[in-house]
Each structure stands twice: as C-alpha cells, then as structure tokens.
Amino acid sequence: MSGTTARVRAAGSRSPGSPRPARRGWKITPWLFLAVPLGLLILFTYVPVANMVWYSFTSWDGLDAVKEPVGFQNYVEIFTRPEIFRVFLVSVYYLVGAFLQLVLAMYFATVLSFSTRFRNWFKGIIFFPYLLNGVAIGLVFLFFFRPGGTLDALLALVGVQDGPQWLGDPSLVNVSLAATSVWRYMGLNFVLFLGAIQSIPTELYEAAELDGASSWQKFRFIILPSISQIVGLSLILAVSGALSVFEIPFIMTGGANGSETFVIQTINTAFKFSKVGLASAMAVVLLLLVLLVSWVQRRFFPEEKGDLA
C-alpha cells in the first residue's frame, strides 16, 4: 500500500502544464511502419542497382555461373565504340518533343486555370492519355500510322493521296514516335502546372489588373516566377525521359528504321547478344547521365528555403 500511495502522490504532484515523459514505444513505432516499405525499396531497387554495378565489371553472358571480372573493359568499349553513343541522337527528337509538350501543357494550364467555357471537359481530355497503358497507346498509334491507316484516311479526306511511310521512312519515324510521346505525357505536365497556377493568390492578379497589366505581363511576372519549381521538376523529368525512352519505340517499331534508342540497344545487348556485363555498364552510364542532369537542374533551379517556412 505504501508503494501505491507514493506513486499516486508523485503523479498528483506533476504540474498540469508539464510534458509527459516520452515512452520508448513511441520512438520505435515510426520505424515499424517504415520497415516494410524500406525493406521493399532496398530489395527491389538498391540491391538490383548494386548487382548491376557489379555485373558491369564482368564479362557475364547471363547464363554462366561464373562471372569473370574484366575491370573497366566494358566502360572502355562503350566510350570507344561510336555506334553505341550514336543512338543518343534519336533522343534529340524526344527532347524536342518534350520541350514542345511542356510549352503546350503550360499554355493549356494557364488558359484553363481561369474562367473558360467547358474547362473541366477540356481538362479531362488533356489528362486522359496519361491514364492509358503505354502498350495500348503503342498498339493504337501503330494502326494510326500504318499505311492505309487512320492518318492516311484523314489525309485522303483533304485530297492527300499516297501519304508517306510514317514508321517506315527513317526521316519521319522518329518524328512520328516523338509526336506520340507528346500526346501521351502532356497530361502529366498539364496537371502539375495546373495545380501550381491555381495555388497562386488571386490578390496578385487583382493588383496587376489595377496596374493595367496585360495577360502576357501577368504570365511573365506572376505565373512563371510562381511555378518555377514545378517548371524545373518538369524539365528534369522531360530530359531524363528523353534519354531513357523505351516502350513506345519498342512496341511500334522495335528500334527499326533508325528508331533504336539507348535503352533498346541496352536490352538487345543483354538478351539478344548475351552480353549482360556490357549491357550493365551501359545502364550504369545512363544512370550517371540522369544523375548529372538532375544535378544541373538543381544548380539552375535551387529549392527556395522559404517554401517550408
């Protein structure tokens, strides 16, 4: 009884405003919630990346149990064979298409952020392609660009006969594939820009109107500076996506007629020519290029420290 009485007196002597002592279980609980996602992240991301780096220093063919180390031989081969890096010229088409889609997405996001007739309907139309599966989009546009397909039928309505080989002509195939990518991914950038523009206080627009600012001046001095962080994020996604584009050209052409990208070349090197070590080195080089682009983006679009204040 004496021990119980002492604990009751001690509890009653605590001031109402004093903080309760932290329990050890509350310190462990957040880590228990993070254990499963961290485990999955390590298992399916960091472990494969570590294996890829190790394979890049070997001559493994993907089948042999022995992985013979070859040092930096794979990396030397990558940088001494011009045909490996020549496929990056194909990424220029997707890079131009990515900048075009950023401009279009910003334009539509700016227009539809204000009172526009049927704006919710237009928002759904623009964002809908991003919800579709990439394989389905590739198959649909494969029939769209094929000879005698949908595009040729539309051109025939305006008197254009014997249309070009959209996917068979090396001078047009990458333009057609890049246009498909613009159609698919513009919805993502549109939603990002739309959310950022709608978060701008309306008082800024009202003050600009009182000063007699035009629509272009509102966009240049209010909208564009306010969404600069989102623009930087979209740029890094666009550049990294242009460097690592894969599914649309792989499904529609398989890399034929000069449409082979660096990722398609890496896949063929690993599974068609059984050079997993060289393909792993190519994947590491691509990863380093994406990280370099991310670092450059951080330099030009630094995070504002006052955002979280």
From TrEMBL:
Q: SUPFAM superfamilies this protein is in?
A: MetI-like
The record's subcellular location field reads: Cell membrane
Q: Does the keyword Transmembrane helix apply?
A: yes
Mind listing the GO biological process terms from this record?
transmembrane transport
Primary site of residence: membrane
- Entry-linked Pfam families: BPD_transp_1
What do the Gene Ontology cellular component annotations say? plasma membrane
Which segments cross the bilayer? 31-57, 92-114, 126-145, 182-200, 221-246, 276-296
Q: What protein does this entry describe?
A: Sugar ABC transporter permease
Q: Which PROSITE patterns match?
A: ABC_TM1
Q: Which organism is it from?
A: Oerskovia douganii
